Amino acid sequence: MKRFLSTTAIVLTMTGAAFADAHTEGFGSVAVEETDFLASDLIGMRIYNSEAEVENDATIAEGAEQEWDDIGEINDIIVSKDGEVTAVILGIGGFLGMGERDVSISMDKIRILNDEGGDRFLVVNTSKEMLEQSPEFERRMNDDAEAQNMTDEEKMANADDKNVTVVTGNTDTSENIEAETEEMAQEAEAETKEMANEVEAETEEMANEVEAESEEMANEAEQMAENAEAETEQAVDGENTTVITGDATEERELLPRPEVEREGYQAAEAGMIEQMSAEDLEGSYVYGANDETVGEIDSLLIGDNGKIDRVVINVGGFLGLGEKPVAVTFDELQVLKNVEGDDVRIYIDSTEERLESQPEYQGD
């Protein structure tokens, strides 16, 4: 929090003949100049950092301090034996006074600035990073002075309260040192054992988790393998068929029967197809789902049961040259018959290129 200072010249004067004596010279006649600080005002002031060098006692615009970084608060001052303020103790870091650390800043590094509104500011040319890297200020002067005035008995009593060993004169303290060393060793052993137990417990827990995850992954992999095997068997049993290609046979995936609807046509039932002759079907074009011509029926193959078993389609070529015969099952075709005539349209769920990639039928 920014602390504003408004100071006025305070002149302390004392009158009377009793004070005119030479022995009282300098007492009661000291005046506070307008530019002076009281120690009580200095302690608690904020110190700001300016990236640019500033001149001491310079005047700045009101509100200009908002461009500076607030780096800490003066907690104390250091006064030399000659009465000169040599440094200030600056509290940096922390939050609401907690976690704060003290560093010392020489007074000649601090610039005092005034703004146009009459407020004073303390400014240095440094950074929070540089201050955080500075050694922490230790208040040892009072402790050393008190220690010098303490008797040996007081030092020993104070040491007992703080659990430390103090050497006073020729007093033998080896027993105390040995006892403290043993106590520290026992504490270190207890802490080491506790840490080892925690590490062992955490390691066991992690091992159990890894084992559980590995078992779960193994079960998933086994299930996936079983599913893949079942799908393969289903594909072989239900979706593949043996295609007769002369002296050899080949396995291939069956094409699904297309579900095509055309105005004025109806799907031919099994009974209607059986009544069709080879003359009705041979030479008919075979269409893809988008009504593109993919081939032409060359011949019908009759099975042992006397029914149409397979259909040979001529694919590719030009004007009957270079055509490739491909055998498909009747289940892969959809036959549409005109409801008012004898026109027949045959569809297959394939493109011309896909049919050409099928094994070539080689008849006897």
Give structural notes.
This protein is an alpha+beta fold and 364 residues long. The protein folds into 3 domains: 10-139, SH3 type barrels (Roll); 172-251; 255-356, PRC-barrel domain (SH3 type barrels, Roll), CATH 2.30.30. Helices cover 30% and strands 27% of the residues. The chain has helices spanning 39-42, 128-132, 141-149, 152-162, 174-239, 270-275, 278-281, 352-356; strands at residues 10-11, 31-32, 46-49, 59-60, 69-79, 85-92, 101-106, 111-115, 120-124, 240-245, 248-253, 265-267, 285-287, 293-302, 308-315, 324-329, 333-338, 344-348. The strands form 4 sheets. It has a 7-stranded mixed sheet. A 7-stranded mixed sheet has the order 12-17-18-13-14-15-16. A hairpin with an 8-residue loop joins strand 15 (308-315) and strand 16. The longest helix has 66 residues, at 174-239.
Distance between the termini: 106 Å
Fraction of residues in β-strands? 25-35%
Number of helices: 8
- Low-confidence parts: 1-20, 162-172, 244-248
Mean pLDDT: 76
Number of structural domains: 3
- Please report the first level of CATH classification, the CATH class of the largest domain: Mainly Beta
Strand order of the largest sheet: 4-8-9-3-5-6-7
CATH superfamily of the largest domain: PRC-barrel domain
Order of helices and strands: EEHEEEEEEEHHHHEEEHHEEEEEEH
Supply Rg. Answer: 52 Å
CATH topology of the largest domain: SH3 type barrels
CATH-derived architecture of the largest domain: Roll
Helix fraction bin: 25-40%
Number of strands: 18
Choose one word for the global shape. Answer: elongated
